[in-house]
Amino acid sequence: MDLRRQHPQRVAAAKAGISERTGRRIEGDPRLPSQKAAERPRRRQVTDPLGGLWQSDILPLLTSHPGVRPVTVLEEMQRRHPDRDWDRLRRTLERRVRAWSAEHGAEREVIFRQDHPLGQQGLSDFTDMAELGVRVAGEALAHRLYHCVLAYSAWEHAEVVLGGESFTALACGLQNALWALGGAPREHRSGSLSAAFRNLDRDAAEDQTRRYEALCVHYKMTATRNNTGVAHENGAIESQHGHLKRAVAQALVLRGSADFGSLDAYRDWLADLIGRRNARRDKLVGIERPRLQPLPPQRTTGHDEATVRVTSSSGFILRRVFYTVPSRLIGYRLKLRIYDDRVECFLAQRHVLTLPRGRPPGNCRIQVVDYCHVINSLCQKPMALLNLVYRDALFPRPAYRAAWERLIAARQPRVACRIMVALLALAHERGCEADLAAALAEQRDGGGVPDLASLRARFAPAAARLPVVAVNLPAITSYDTLRPAHAALASATASATAGATAGAAS
User: Do 364 and 397 fall into the same domain?
Assistant: First the structure.
C-alpha cells in the first residue's frame, strides 16, 4: 500500500512481489487479516477415524517391527478387523505411520558426500546394455560395457564386452582407458570384483586376486573396493552409468536405427560418442591430467593363457568350445592368448592365426568352425558331411544351411553331400562366399535346388587358353650386312683415340 501511493497498481504489485489481481483484491478490502472472519472449520469429525485401533493394534505392530511398511499394516488390519472400510483409511494410516516414523522410527543410513581430489581416484564397473536393443548384422547383440570414470573430471572410457565381468575384460578395458587418458590415478576403485571370482574354487579366486593386485602395482595404483552390495559407495560411476546409457539411447534415436553392419562399426560409433562427451569436459580434464601419475614404459598382461594340442579333428577344445584350425597344425601344441572377443594362437612364439571367441550358453558345448580349415580333407571324404558333429556350424552363412536342407530333402544323401561340399570348395577356392550365398538365395526363391553346374560356370569359369604366338627368326647370314658399317665405326673410333693420346703427350 505504501508503493501504491507513488506507483500505479500494476507497478506497485510487481514491486511488492504479488500479482496485479492480488493487489486489486487487497485494495478492495483494506482490512487486516486479523480483522477478517475466521476460516471455515474442518468438516471431519473430531473422533479418531481409526476407531482407537492406533494405540491397541497398530502402534504395538510398528514398535515390534520397525521396518514394516504401511501397506503391510493395512493388510494386517484388514485381516484382523474385516468389518471396517480400510481402503478408505489407507491415506490416513500412511500419514500416521510416516509421522510416527519421523519421531520414533529407526535410524536410517546417511550418505556422506565426498570431495574428490585431483588425480586421486578412478573407478571401474560394468553395465548391461541389453535393454537398448542393439543389433549387429540383423542379430541382437547381447553385451555389456566396461566403464571407467575419473571421479574429479568425470572423464570416461567405455568399450564393448561380449562376455561376463571377467578379469580379462577388466584388465583390457582399464589399460585401454589409462593409455587413452595418458596417465593413471593414484587409486583404482572397483565393485569388489565379485563377478570375476564367482563360481571359482579357492585357488582360482586367489590367482585372480593376485593378478588384479599385480595389475594395479604395475600402474602404481592403490586397489580399493566398495563393500559388497553397497552400490552407492561407487556413486561416482553408478550415476555415470545412467547418463551414458541415456546418451547412447538418445544417439540411437537420432541415428534412426540400432542395427550396425558389423561389431567394429558399433565400436567405432560408440568411441565417437564417448569422444564427443569427453570433449565437453576438456577444461576439467586439463586441470586433472597434470596430477595423474605417468604411465609405465609398456602395458602388462591383459589376457588369459592356455596351452592346447591340436587333435586329428583339426581343432582343439577350450572352455567347452571346439575351435578348428588349419589341418597342417594337427599334432602341434599351441599357446593361446584368450581375450574377451578373440583367441590368438601362437606356435613357438610365432603368431599363426586369430579365432573369434566362442561363448557357450550355460553348460552346453558349441563349435567355432571355419570351413576353410577342413575343406580340402572334406573334398576327399564328402560323405563325412552327412553326420558331422559340427555340420551346422560349418556353414558360413544361412544361405548355405538352407541349400543343404533343400539338397538333403530332394537328393540322395551321397549326391547331396557331394554337391554341398563342392559348393563350399567353390566358395573357398574362388573367394566368392558372399556372392555365392546371394546366388543360392536366388535359386531358393525360385523354388529349385542348387544347380552346381550353373554356379560353377558363373563363379569358376574355365581357364582361358593361351594364344599361339608365331615368332619368325631371321637367317643368320643377314647379319653380314652389318659388318662393313661396324668396321668403319671401329676405325673412326681408333683414329680419334690416337689423336687424343698424341695431343696429351705434346
Answer: no
